[in-house]
Amino acid sequence: MSLGLRSWWLRCLDESLTAEQRRLPPDELGRLRVVVGSVGLLLLLDLAYLAMLPFHPPSQRVVQALVLGGNLLVSLGVLVLVRRMRSPLLPSLLLCGSLAVSLLLASLLVELPGGVVHGVYMLVPLLAVYLLGARRGFVFTALLAFNAAFLHEFVHSGLGQTRPLFAEPRLSWSNFTAGLSLMLGWALSWLYNTAREEVHAELRRTLQTLRESEGKLSSLIESTDDVVLSLDARGRLVMANPGAQQLFARMTDGVVLVPGNPLLSRCPPELREWVAARGRMALGGQRVRAEVDVLVEGRPRTVDVLFNPVREGERVVGLTLFGRDLTERKRAELQLGEVHRSLMDASRQAGMAEIATGVLHNVGNTLNSVNVSASVVMERLRDSRVSGLGRAVALLRENEARLGTFLSEDTRGRQLPAYLEALSLQLAQEREMMQEEMRRLVQSVDHIRSVVSMQQRHARFSGAMEQVSIPALLDDALRLLAVSFDRLGIELRREYAAEVPTVLVDRHKLLQILVNLLSNARHALLEEGVEDRRLTLRVESWGERLRISVSDNGVGIAPEVVPRLFSQGFTTKKDGHGFGLHASALAAREMGGQLSCASEGRYRGATFTLELPMGKLTPAESRV
């Protein structure tokens, strides 16, 4: 049956039902349709039999006319019950009962050999099982089967005349087979209806699950602030959630999205070409994602839109649009970027302050040596015997006229040569001592100049990428710390690989990280309870990366603390600010590297490892 004919047939059946009946559940509505359709078909069948009565034997016409007339009245009664009753049970009982009784009477009152094997008998089990269920249908089917197999033969064989049962084997076996066929028809109808009910039950469960899922999805779509639109292949609106309605109303001064209308006609003019181009790409099977700037109530907003094709098999039948307002996130990203830049500036300032503290400490120690040397020179000059030489010269000038007599006869004159000899020796010693102090003074000044020059050199290259020798930079970091590890009782070990390649990094950032790690290691080794203090520096290649390890056997780090070490504001030192390791980790990440920590627990030391990618300068970079 074609789809059009089937729809017309169902419409005709529904016209005979009331509006309330058409709203019944599908199973009951289906039974009412079958009752009405069966009555209509039986009426046609009865009319056809009435038309054929003149061709029947005269002795059978009256009985058949009465049976057919009764069928017509019962059919009309069934139709009346259908219109008056909501449930299909009573009309179904009346229909099946009238059909069974009319067939039973026709077979008993009209002597028609082979009448009980007529195909119309099979209508009873088919209709009864479907309309009334297996148990009620069995009653009607068993009645007709008993009639076909035994009662019909018994009645038309003489109502109790003594004769062998199966006196006519052909007719009796046909009747018995007809009764058996009716029972088999009932069994097949029962199996079919049982299987059908199982399928319908599974279908109901599936539909229930689908409705629940659809309800959840609908609730999710309706409650989200994001834009959700669904379009068909022609760009007409299928569905728009409240978020989409609200956004379009704010963009277009109150325009409402109506299902069935083209979406482009509702879009602001400046967005139509943008939406149309990406819509065509989505209808072509491509998933498109893009950001667009729109004006919402006169204020610029950024919306992230996803165009997603909707497929039925291999065919694209529509598309969905998902939009999210990214304005606040963009603003937060800008603020985060500003905070990150401020944090990096602060980290550089902190690193510079750390280095400057080391530089000042180193310069201060050297200035102490300069002060000591200057004080010694001043003290030597103050206690110098140069004044005695002046008195001797004055004495010689006083006795210049009798210089020979003065030197040979005067007591003071005779002592003057020995005095001058002793004075010259003492002045020579003073000169040598002051020369040594001045040499030390010059060395201290040179040391101050070298420290300041080194700091200026590192600061000058801040932010610039260059090839850096890691062992040399580690030595610079140790010097900038201005710490004598030997004086502090710390054994310093350098375990560098035989060939350590240079790395392309920002020298200032890397120096800042190394100074911070060395400073933390020094503090960890100087804590109470640490013995055999030892600091180990390792540099080694690891594939395409370079590893720099700073290991100490100091106070160590508790396992639960290790994951938080690089968090901003977290510190394990009493006077710490929780900024150094966080800034170092950020600097390492900016250079494409990674800073990590490993510790076996308290008083078991710690190892900080910095991994950096090894790179080479391009010709353009080397020229810069």
From TrEMBL:
A GO BP entry: phosphorelay signal transduction system
UniProt entry tagged with the keyword ATP-binding: yes
Domain of life: Bacteria
Domain Histidine kinase: start-end pairs: 432-616
Domain PAS span(s) in chain numbering: 213-256
Signal peptide: none
Ranges that cross the membrane: 32-56, 62-82, 89-110, 116-133, 138-156
An MF annotation (GO) of this entry: protein histidine kinase activity
Pfam families in UniProt: HATPase_c, PAS_4
UniProt cross-references to InterPro entries, sorted A to Z: HATPase_C_sf (IPR036890), HATPase_dom (IPR003594), His_kinase_dom (IPR005467), PAS (IPR000014), PAS-assoc_C (IPR000700), PAS-like_dom_sf (IPR035965), PAS_4 (IPR013656), Sig_transdc_His_kin-like_C (IPR004358)
Enzyme Commission code: 2.7.13.3
Reactions listed under catalytic activity: ATP + protein L-histidine = ADP + protein N-phospho-L-histidine
Keywords noted in UniProt: ATP-binding, Kinase, Membrane, Nucleotide-binding, Transferase, Transmembrane, Transmembrane helix, Two-component regulatory system
Domain PAC intervals: 286-338
Record NCBIfam families: sensory_box (TIGR00229)
The protein's name: histidine kinase
UniProt lineage: Bacteria, Pseudomonadati, Myxococcota, Myxococcia, Myxococcales
